[in-house]
Amino acid sequence: MNAGSFAPALVLNADFRPLNYFPLSLWSWQDAVKAVCLDRVTIVSEYEDSISSPSFEMKLPSVIALKEFVPQMRNPAFTRFNVFLRDKFSCQYCGTPHAAADLTFDHVVPRSRGGRTTWQNVVAACSPCNLRKANKLPEQCGMTPLSKPVAPNIWQLQENGRGFPPNYLHESWRDYLYWDTELQQS
């Protein structure tokens, strides 16, 4: 195996569910092999490629499961990325989907008018809509968010993340991801 090859391992929690869907919980093959050697994970599936040394050989893990369960936070952190994920990377004023780099977040009630930076007052917005709304209240400019901003739980964010499969998905991951779209085979 070429050590520079792309062979990430899908990381499952001890209950055999992915730790994250977006970003997908992946470890490099080096980290996966180290975790196997330290007896921290169970190998669920393997690639055809292997690594070897004079005294050791193993197939590279493609799916691993943690031996100890990692509890998921019930209340996700309020971050720009999580706001975009909650809003499915779509502007909440015009509904157009965007890459995260092309989104901003908008205070529904502007901070200058007493609005706070909370889940209930911040939405994803594209730059043109954010500029058009400016420092106005929704009723002043006729720009009401398409979805009422609420604090999501971790399961809602995970479900939204399932809607954005990454570019690379190995067929051995199929049974653990449950994406509705056909997986791209490597």
Q: Tell me what the CATH architecture of the largest domain is.
A: Orthogonal Bundle
Radius of gyration: 21 Å
| Percentage of residues in DSSP E strands | 15-25%
Overall geometry comes to elongated
Number of helices: 6
- CATH classification, class level of the largest domain: Mainly Alpha
Instruction: List SSEs in N-to-C order.
Output: EEHEEHEEHHHH
Helix content: 10-25%
CATH topology of the largest domain: DNA Binding (I), subunit A
Strand order of the largest sheet: 2-1-4-3
| Uncertain runs | 180-186
Number of strands: 6
- Class inferred from helices and paired strands: alpha+beta
Domain count, please report it: 2
Summarize the structure.
This protein has 186 residues and is of the alpha+beta class.
Give the helix/strand layout.
Elements: E1 9-12, E2 26-27, H1 29-37, E3 41-53, E4 56-66, H2 80-86, E5 103-107, E6 122-126, H3 127-133, H4 138-141, H5 154-161, H6 174-177
Parallel strand pairs: 1-4
Antiparallel strand pairs: 1-2, 3-4, 5-6
Q: Can you give a write-up of this model?
A:
- By secondary structure, the chain is α+β, with helices and mostly antiparallel strands.
- It folds into two domains: 1-71, no CATH class; 80-155, DNA Binding (I), subunit A, CATH 1.10.30.
- Helices cover 21% and strands 22% of the residues.
- The chain contains six helices and six strands, in the order E-E-H-E-E-H-E-E-H-H-H-H.
- The strands form two sheets. It has a four-stranded mixed beta sheet with strand order 2-1-4-3. Strands 5-6 form a two-stranded antiparallel sheet.
- Strand 3 and strand 4 form a beta hairpin.
- The longest helix has 9 residues, at 29-37.
- The two termini are 16 Å apart.
- Residues 180-186 have low confidence and may be disordered.
